[in-house]
Amino acid sequence: MEMVLEGRWVTGDLSYAGGPRRLVDILNHLDLGIAVLHNAEIDGAQTAQQPERFESMQVNLNSLLFAIPIGGDLQQADAFERVPKVPVEATVALPGYELTGSVYLVPGADPEATHMIGTRSFVPMTGVTITCYGPQGDSRQRHVAVVNMARATLFAVRSRVPAIA
Predict the structure, then answer these.
(1) Burial, 23: exposed, middle or buried (Cβ in 10 Å; 0-12, 13-18, 19+)?
(2) Cβ distance 52 to 143 under 8 Å?
(3) Full-model pTM
(4) Do 2-68 and 86-157 have matching folds?
(5) 125 near 104, Cβ under 8 Å?
(6) What is the pLDDT of residues 26-54, one digit of tens each?
(7) Between 159 and 84, the higher pLDDT residue
(8) Dist CA 129 CA 102 (whole Å)
């Protein structure tokens, strides 16, 4: 997975002692608020240095802006655990980044009454465009990103949340 912190991109294998789960479920259930990565690497792009490699690394989830699964994170939630949700085009602003894509809300939910920012939960987005407002100012496309809504400074939707037909 990739983890994006302020000014750092960290890549590694997430250590989790449970059954197969989606990345969003794992991040929302890590009891100690720390993710342990193995075969980790800190991207040196911000400092023009080569990436630094580590056997293991602890990451404070409070510092995490968003995470991106790499490879096999297409695990679906158990059908009995799912609440019906509909995709809504949204923008989430985080320190140094803006993510635009689909979030999933309960059908007919009022976005003004659905408190998304400031919560202590991670929320998945799909079809994501990640725009960096740093010196490089680049954009990246990702299939899925898991956003730390406790770090979000803005959450905006483009239209009303549809009801299920």
Answers:
(1) buried
(2) no
(3) 0.85
(4) yes
(5) no
(6) 999 887 889 999 999 998 555 567 888 99
(7) 84
(8) 10
Q: How far apart are CA 56 and CA 37, in angstroms?
A: 6
Nearest to 73 by CA among 123, 17, 146, 141: 146
Of 126, 146, 153, nearest to 35 (Cα)? 146
Q: In CATH terms, is domain 86-157 a member of 2.60.40.10?
A: no
Domain ranges of the chain: 2-68, 86-157
Buried b (16+ CB within 10 A) or exposed e, 84-119: eebebebbbbbeebbbbbebbbeeebebeeeebbee
Q: HSE (CB half, 13 Å, CA atoms) of 146?
A: 21
Residue holding tokens 């080569």? 50
Q: Name the fold adopted by 2-68.
A: SH3 type barrels. (2.30.30)
3-state helix, strand, coil in the chain (%, to 5): 10, 45, 45
Out of 38-47, 72-81, 86-95, least confident range: 72-81
